[in-house]
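INFO batch 0412 | record 1 of 1 | parsing
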Amino acid sequence: MEEIIVVRAVDSDGTIFQTIMAALHDKSVQTVEVSSSIPSFGDVELYPAFRRVLKAGKEIHLNYGEYSMLYCLVKHSGRVFTKDQLYASAWDSKRYFGSNTVENTICRLRKKLEPDPRHPIYIKKIIQVEYKFVPPEKV
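INFO prediction complete | emitting tokens
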């Protein structure tokens, strides 16, 4: 009887993988490397399959709209979005004129994710009506 075991873990240094392989040393084992790029910036990682966000390894609670807007911005890094586009990406409907929902959501995201929310480096406001995500420079 064949068995399939799938293990998914954050294992930046490979120690979890090596431990599992050592435990299975006398078994017939085939491994398949799956490349899954985890969207990340600074010390923040997004796990889209679980709608989870980790900052410095700790889970950050984001509501539905916050996560949806952040994911949209990060997924299309560098693209400029209007408030209407961000609203639609989060709630799949049109934004009501005069609504501050997008501004409030962006403000909460900055407080939760930016090193200094008063001087954001990731979520930038462009021309007073649009936003974009700016990834940090690769070192």
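INFO post-check: The longest helix spans residues 101-113.
INFO record closed
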